Amino acid sequence: MGKHVRKVAIIGTGLVGSSAAYSIVNQGICDELLMVDINSERAIGESLDLSHCIDFTPSRTKVHAGSYKDMGDVEVIIITAGPPPKPGQTRLDTLGIGAKIMGEMIPQIMASGFNGIFLIASNPVDIITYHVWKLSGLPRNRVIGTGTSLDSSRLKTYLSEMLSVDPRSIHGYTMGEHGDSQFAAWSHVTVGGKPFCQILEEHKDELGEVDLDQIVEDVKKVGFEILKRKGTTYYGIGNALAFITKSIFNDDHSIIALSCILDGEYGETNLCTGVPAIITREGVKEVVELNLSEDEQLKFAKSNAVLREYMDSIGYTSEVSVTR
């Protein structure tokens, strides 16, 4: 009897790709892991190193190096390839190079017969995800980016330290661009089911005056604080990629803040931006439309306008937004 093989490919075996691979192998998320890089020797080295972990992991994962032509039977392709921002740049400043890389890569992948799910981490992730969707011709539910998943995790970490609770007991999202224009949907942040804003009101003596805008600024900038100190970030996003991949394979129906291509949700179309979504074996089952406050709606519109401006630079000038 044939066994269904869960097969993942990671394109880009730098620090992000290798960290994602390490998390995937250690958690036994897939049966086979394909490592692909323009530097084929790097991909071979990473695959060899990872294959030596197997004696210490919960299940066996076959790890090997490969190429685009090997993608035909892959179920999830994780793309991390692309340049990190240089000092003084934002993620958006890397768009030109990233778009060119995808333009060369995606047609070769699709020529292999690939018909699975793309999971994008390459920055600027929202626009690159949209670009991959256009290049691939796949349904929008099967092209997703990591979006504000890591930012939302960072937000929970900050709040957990402030309130001395487990971050996994905090629920809430940052939304919009994975970048400087993102915002926190404070009206939907809860701690153990209790609205965070209510907790602030009830504990003014203990917590003092909490600057919500400053918390969001800290969440936005912490990636660059890490970059300044160690060169780039990779553990957080690597584990996020592993978690999303596991959610796909397990058909978990988890709700995660991801880069999703919108088609009417939140009154937007022809746009990819960070929103909470239900993730299943087929990718995005549903975009979760939160009832945002008026201020949050304005911030979301502003963030989406920033994304559209940069989308124009790679030829998506005809794409327009829908209004309700």
Mind explaining what this structure looks like?
This protein has helices spanning 15-27, 40-51, 95-111, 125-136, 149-163, 196-202, 204-207, 212-230, 235-249, 294-312, and strands at residues 7-11, 32-36, 62-65, 76-79, 117-120, 143-145, 170-171, 174-175, 183-184, 190-191, 194-195, 254-263, 269-280, 283-287. It has 324 residues and is an alpha/beta fold. It has two domains: 7-145, NAD(P)-binding Rossmann-like Domain (Rossmann fold, 3-Layer(aba) Sandwich); 149-312, L-2-Hydroxyisocaproate Dehydrogenase, Chain A, domain 2 (Alpha-Beta Complex), CATH 3.90.110. A hairpin with a 7-residue loop joins strand 8 (174-175) and strand 9 (183-184). It has ten helices and 14 strands. A six-stranded parallel sheet has the order 3-2-1-4-5-6, sandwiched between helices. It has a three-stranded antiparallel sheet with strand order 7-10-11. Helix 1 crosses helix 9, helix 3 (95-111) runs parallel beside helix 4 (125-136) and helix 5 packs across helix 8 (212-230). It is globular and about 60 Å long. The longest helix has 19 residues, at 212-230.
